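Hi V.,

Quick status before I head out on leave. The structure for the redesign project is tokenized and pasted below; the design run finished overnight.
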């Protein structure tokens, strides 16, 4: 009998644009560190990065809402701290 995999959402890490930078360093980036994803996957779970939303709580160009993630995921890992 095959067991159903857990679906784990992970909050993204943020990289903020650098003053006077060009290319990728001039953009706000949301990313998931490989070590975090592998740690969660080692428990036989699927990993999904949950992107940040704007100040009004609405994703741009979409009807998706944070509650859609809450309904679809089994758990959420919140990353934090300064590096």
């Amino acid at each position: 009998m095959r067991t159903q995999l857990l679906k784990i959402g992970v909050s993204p890490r943020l990289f903020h644009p650098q003053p006077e930078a060009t290319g990728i360093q001039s953009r706000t980036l949301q990313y998931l560190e490989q070590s975090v994803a592998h740690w969660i996957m080692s428990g036989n779970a699927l990993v999904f990065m949950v992107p940040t939303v704007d100040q009004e709580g609405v994703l741009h160009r979409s009807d998706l809402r944070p509650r859609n993630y809450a309904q679809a995921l089994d758990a959420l890992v919140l990353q934090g701290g300064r590096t």
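Above is the designed sequence. The mean pLDDT is 84.

G. will cover questions while I'm gone.

Best,
W.
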